[in-house]
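Record 1 of the preview.
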Amino acid sequence: MRQLDILGGVFRDLLFYGHIHANNVLEMMGGTGYNVYTGLAALNIDAKFHGASGDDFPVNDTTTIIGTRTGIFVCRNEKEALAVHRGANLHVTPKALTSNLLFATLECGGDTFLTYAKMMKQKGGMVILDPSPVFEWEASFIEYCDVLIPNAKEYQRIKDIIPKDKPVFLKRGINGGSYFHLGREINQTITNQGEYPLGCGDAFDVAVIYGLLNHYMPEETVRLAVNFGEKTSFIRGSSKAVEQVARDFLK
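->
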């Protein structure tokens, strides 16, 4: 299995800034989902990206986004549109899944996640969830998840309802990463820490998915995930950093 579907996210003023700073800005065009998409594409994984803002994303020419139909502003260390006008994704019809594996975060909202997760489970497929932002989490989501990739704070919130037979790849930041399954625990520490944490967790996700697709042993997957996150911390950017680390891995 070398194919998967990836669910994009939405921009949330409250999540990043603590208050709603603009009435016309809400939906994000990709978030972690898009970063993971670019990373896996760099690893030659065939992925279909289900974006939150419609059929005109992903945008190919990332240098001319301002002034186009959907893009509003660009992060100072990126060349990608980060947001679209409020309501841009309200009428986007869920697209058919093309694989037997779905990766999602909760940036898309709990309702959207459930829509896609149920579609995947109905066809007998597998669902991998990065439960961020955790305020979207509901206990009922657990039955639709086959693998979870939380960070430490998210794990503390949801760990009591995770069955022991569901694998967990835990992102522990500067402390590395861990794997839990059926009472087994594997821990991997980092060796160096860069100054750019943006995108490190997304790189971790990329490596976990790559390991699962290639039938790596859990200890190999955790080691690769921590390595990807660590290397990303030395590169400015988010999706561009994740993509570079992935490309370097194949060299």
